[in-house]
Amino acid sequence: MKILKLALIVALFSATPTWAESLTGPQNNAVRSANLYLSMQGFSRSGLIQQLSSDFGDGYKVADATAAVDSLDIDWDKPSKR
């Protein structure tokens, strides 16, 4: 039982940097918004940043939108699969 607890603790601590990625609150919110937009339609990297930072979109600061988009695990050179 102690070995199982130890293995679980090690797994959680090793996975934490992947979850957090040291993004700020607004950047994490922008990541959620970006994933929502991407679930509805395909975007280019610059188009998604523009959508997130636009007054007609979510109104995030361009720096926060850029950090959020760059944190996504997406190959922007491949066409979107919609």
Concise synopsis of the structure shown:
The protein is mainly α and 82 residues long. The chain has helices at residues 2-20, 25-40, 45-53, 62-71. The protein has a domain at 25-76.
Key descriptive features of the protein:
82 residues; mainly alpha; 4 helices; globular; signal; Putative host cell surface-exposed lipoprotein Ltp-like HTH region domain-containing protein; WH-like_DNA-bd_sf; Ltp-like_HTH
Shape: globular
Structural class: mainly alpha
Overall pLDDT confidence: 83
Task: Give the tally of β-strands.
Answer: 0
- Radius of gyration, CA atoms, in whole angstroms: 16 Å
Report the portion of residues in β strands: under 5%
Number of discrete helical segments: 4
The major sheet is characterized as:
none
End-to-end separation in angstroms reads 46 Å
The stretches of 5 or more residues where confidence is low (pLDDT under 50) are 15-19
Percent helix? 55-70%
Quaternary structure of the protein: single chain
Order of helices and strands: HHHH
Pfam family, one: Lipoprotein_Ltp
Keywords: Signal
InterPro entries: Ltp-like_HTH, WH-like_DNA-bd_sf
Protein name: Putative host cell surface-exposed lipoprotein Ltp-like HTH region domain-containing protein
